[in-house]
Write a structure and sequence with these properties.
The complex is a heterodimer of chains A (about 300) and B (about 200).
Chain A: H1 4-7, H2 9-27, H3 34-52, H4 59-81, H5 90-101, H6 104-114, H7 119-122, H8 145-155, E1 172-176, E2 183-187, H9 202-213, H10 222-228, H11 233-244, H12 261-272, E3 276-279, E4 285-288
Chain B: H1 4-17, H2 22-37, H3 42-52, E1 58-59, E2 67-69, E3 74-75, H4 77-86, H5 88-91, E4 96-103, H6 109-119, E5 122-127, E6 130-135, E7 139-142, E8 152-161, H7 169-179, H8 188-193
Parallel strand pairs in B: 1-3, 2-4
Antiparallel strand pairs in B: 4-8, 5-6, 5-8, 6-7
The chains are: A mainly alpha (about 300), B alpha/beta (about 200).
Chain lengths: ~300, ~200
């Protein structure tokens, strides 16, 4: 499931873009009404018990959960004792404080709580979150090699510095399991099947493409380049998509030693509407979508924030 | 019935398994989806091509010219199609492009259909005696509706059709005159008090 967000770059862009727009609008609110303060604080405090129910044998995840809990508890103490919600742009101040003091998991957690009082900001964004992927499928072959090179250098500056001759940067490969027909990750040096690798090693292929482009004439059209270099066609297509969509790419090495597939999975599932995440290891997790949701006979009168009950 | 997503996914994977790069496999997947949407036998022809591919001596074109003649069993429809699609803005200037012997030409067709959307012009495609008018990748008019495998075509040509009105000025003027009967003659009062102004309803 994790490669879904690699395979749907424009969709990923639209999801993240919606999150960024919502956060921006919330940070721009000058005076936070008492009612909104209370919804935020209540949801945040009530949600903590969800985290304490996550059980995992993975040391990596245990540490992440501990760190998240510690940060959130400290953050709540800070909110109760030191933070003035009556100041102008209080959510912006809060966000700046989060960025300074807490781990990324905590920042993301609190941002999602900030959205709770603001259906009027969040709901209109839903219709922007799908994508007409077909529109961006054709490669603009009239563009030049120079254009493409500049896109790679602008959009992938960190990726281009990775040395893929080192085993640690080229350690894993993605494949489709014959048993489950699902994507899986394996060590290419220990396991068989790397010759059937899926096209999900974006960083490595970007680097390969860039190396190749350095050897050909800048004025060539992409059509001319592709006529003899179709091996990297998938990545050429991708680069031209990424040029248009700022949040469409995972800026990481998806085959490196330190890749944590569960992070991609959680990101995807959160946008699919998963509400509770129970990480089982660094590779998979259990989720819950409707636990505690109102039943049909309760729909006339229910707590909108039932998920935190 | 198989969904279009299933058709696309299986076409992509099988194209890769048949030896094409992932990028080309993506193109084939989109094309087979397109053929099936247009009610042309995409899956059937792709399957047949891949079953026979190893025994065929395929001509792999890279730079497409006005006249292209295969030297072996025939042009690979996928490689020829990819290159026509990629080079369509140059080929458009040639007006007509000919291929002598294309294998499994129905697999070549969707590349040309997609090319019409790239250049914003219709293309007339002839595969031996089968004629196809490809309309901006939205639909296809054809004298061919069979659900069969076409293993090869000796003569394939495509001709770019310049955009022009399908009616003459008289016909247009007559119709325009009739459309004027929806207009209201403005008197002085309306000229002064009416909000907005423009030549068409779209302003």
């Amino acid at each position: 499931m994790a490669p879904f967000i690699v395979n749907h770059p424009t969709l990923l862009n639209n999801w993240i873009s919606a999150r960024e727009i919502a956060l921006k609008k919330i940070r721009e609110i000058k005076k936070i009404p008492k009612k909104d303060q209370n919804i935020f604080l209540e949801c945040l405090k009530k949600s903590i018990k969800n985290i304490t129910s996550w059980n995992t044998e993975s040391e990596y995840q245990i540490n992440k959960i501990k760190s998240l809990l510690k940060d959130l508890n400290e953050f709540i103490i800070y909110l109760d004792n030191n933070f003035n919600f009556e100041q102008d742009y209080a959510f912006n101040e809060l966000y700046l404080h989060l960025e300074k003091k807490y781990c990324e998991e905590c920042i993301e957690y609190v941002v999602s709580m900030m959205m709770e009082p603001y259906d009027d900001i969040v709901l209109p964004l839903i219709k922007e979150m799908s994508s007409e992927e077909e529109k961006y499928f054709n490669i603009p072959t009239e563009r030049t090699v120079e254009d493409l090179k500049l896109i790679l250098e602008k959009k992938y500056p960190d990726i281009l510095t990775i040395d893929f001759t080192k085993d640690e940067n080229n350690l894993n490969f993605w494949f489709i399991s014959k048993n489950k027909e699902e994507p899986r990750l394996a060590n290419r040096f220990d396991e068989m099947g790397a010759e059937l690798e899926q096209p999900l090693a974006i960083a490595r292929d970007i680097k390969r493409l860039h190396d190749l482009l350095l050897k050909v004439n800048n004025n060539w059209t992409i059509a001319k380049f592709l006529s003899t270099n179709n091996e990297l066609r998938h990545i050429v297509r991708r680069a031209f998509i990424v040029e248009k969509f700022p949040y469409s790419e995972i800026q990481d090495n998806t085959i490196g030693k330190t890749i944590v597939p569960i992070d991609m999975l959680r990101l995807k599932l959160s946008f699919f509407g998963a509400l509770k995440f129970d990480p089982r290891s660094d590779k998979w997790l259990r989720i819950c979508m409707f636990q505690g949701a109102p039943l049909p006979d309760q729909l006339k009168n229910y707590d909108e924030h039932w998920v935190y009950n | 019935m198989r969904s279009l997503s299933e058709i696309e996914t299986v076409s992509k994977r099988s194209s890769r398994a048949a030896g094409y790069s992932w990028g080309i496999a993506e193109e084939v997947a989109k094309n087979i989806r397109l053929l099936e949407i247009f009610n042309l036998p995409g899956v059937k022809n792709l399957n047949s091509f891949f079953k026979k591919k190893k025994k065929l001596s395929l001509d792999m074109i890279s730079a497409v010219n006005q006249d292209n003649v295969a030297n072996r069993d025939g042009y690979c429809p996928i490689i020829a199609g990819v290159n026509v699609l990629d080079q369509i803005k140059t080929l458009e200037k040639l007006n007509q492009v000919n291929f002598k012997k294309v294998l499994y030409p129905l697999l070549f067709l969707p590349f040309i259909s997609r090319a019409t959307a790239v250049i914003g012009k219709r293309i007339f495609l002839k595969i031996d005696d089968k004629e196809f008018l490809l309309n901006f990748n939205n639909n296809i008019y054809s004298n061919y509706t069979k659900n069969e495998i076409i293993e090869s075509a000796n003569n394939v040509y495509l001709k770019v059709i310049e955009n022009r009105d399908s009616f003459n000025d008289d016909e247009w003027n007559e119709l325009y005159k009739l459309s004027e009967e929806t207009f209201v003659e403005e008197n002085e009062s309306l000229k002064q008090g009416g909000a907005g102004a423009g030549l068409t309803d779209n302003d």
